[in-house]
Structure formats: structure tokens, C-alpha cells
Amino acid sequence: MKPILTLEEREYFFSLKSILFFLIGGPFFSFLLILFFSLEINNWSRELLTKQTAGILEHFFNMEIQVTFSNNEWGLIDQSIDISYDISLICTSYHIISIYVSFILLIPPSESQTARKDIKKRKLKSIILLTVIIYLGNLARLIMLIYLTNSGWDWNLTHTIINYGTGFLAAFLFIYVLYLWIPEAFISLYYIPLVLKSMKKIKEENI
């Protein structure tokens, strides 16, 4: 008999296959999503981010920002201090969104009906929330970087501090959303040693 874990009156037990698929399939699916968003047809994401950043800086911060497009590359020029910024694909945070979405989709559901009945809804809610917040947070990151550089801050120092800060917040948000809405992500990992221990006990009893 499989060990059963209980959390907030819900029972959780999993198959080892579903857990292994989560651990192996998550990174693999993330890799495929990252490759997909790297395709030229998805260059619209850079265009959108570039134009939104320029629009906000111009209308809310009274900065003279020019949007550039050359050789299929998007960029910005701060005309008041004559500094250009290349908006690369990684600036869109597509890699973070790809990783988060992949892992959420493959989180194994409990085999108990009490816990799995609404997991699709919880996963969809988590994906939408994380995608929106990460995108808006990344937009705010670019605006802060360009505005502070325009104000005289050192680019390298500002870039390092803001990137580390937003990276930490994104990781914290991801963990918190999983804890709040999809605890299966943590419970399934805790479940592995319990199953192995149970299998070992059954084997010893048979001997």
C-alpha cells in the first residue's frame, strides 16, 4: 500500500512514474519552450517590450527615447545623453517564464480525488499570475535601468543590483505561488523517500 500524506484535509499519494516525469520532463520541456521563443517568429516579444519601455519613459518620465530596429534587432536610444540600449531576447525574461510554465504544467497530481479535482484550475491560475507579474516586473526593471542611467548612475552597478534583486523576487514569487496553490510540487518530492522506504520494507518482509 502506498504511503499517504495529508495536508489541510486533502490526501496526497503519487506514482513514482509521475514524479520522475516531473523531474526529467520539466527541464526538457523548458529547453523546448526556450528554443521555441528563440525563433525569429517570436521577435514580436522584443518589439512589444521595446515600444512599451520607450512609451512609458517618454510619457511618464519626460525622457527623449528613440526606438530603433536594424538587422532584425530592437533597441533604444536615450537622446538626451546619447546612449543606446540593445533589447536582446533575454531581456524579455522569456527563459524564466518558460522554466516556470514547464515545471507547473508537469507537477504530478495526487492520485487522490480529493486533491486532484481542481489541480488544472490551480495550475492555470498560477501560470497566468506568474506570467503577468514577471512580464510587468521585467518591464519595470528596464525602465528603472534606463532612468537611473539617465540620472547619472553607473550602468554596470545598476544593472547588477537590479538584476539580482528582480531575480530573487521572481524566485521567491514562484516558490510562494507553488506553496499557496500547488503544494503537490513540494509534497511529491518529499514523497520519494517515503515510497522508497516503503518498498524496502515490503522487500524485507518478503525475504
Give a structural overview.
The chain is mainly alpha-helical and 207 residues long. It has one domain (15-63, 90-206). Helix content is 67%, strand content 11%. It has 7 helices and 5 strands; from the N terminus they run ββααβββααααα. The strands form 2 sheets. The chain has a 3-stranded antiparallel beta sheet with strand order 3-4-5, covered by helices on one side. Strands 1-2 form a two-stranded antiparallel sheet. β4 (73-78) and β5 (83-87) form a beta hairpin. α2 packs across α5, α3 (94-106) packs antiparallel against α5 (119-150) and α5 (119-150) runs antiparallel to α6 (155-181). The two termini are 18 Å apart. The mean pLDDT is 91.
Output the keywords.
two-stranded antiparallel ribbon; three-stranded antiparallel beta sheet; 207 residues; 7 helices; 5 strands; mainly alpha
In short:
This protein has 207 residues and is mostly helical. It is built from 7 helices and 5 strands; from the N terminus they run E-E-H-H-E-E-E-H-H-H-H-H. It has one domain.
Q: What composes the largest sheet?
A: 3 strands, antiparallel
Q: How many strands appear in the DSSP assignment?
A: 5
Low-confidence stretches: none
Radius of gyration over all CA atoms, rounded: 22 Å
Class from helix and strand fractions: mainly alpha
Shape: elongated
Helix count, per DSSP?
7
Distance between the termini: 18 Å
Q: How many domains comprise the coordinates?
A: 1
Beta percentage is 5-15%
Helix percentage = 55-70%
The overall pLDDT average reads 91
Helices and strands, in order, run as EEHHEEEHHHHH
Strand order of the largest sheet: 3-4-5
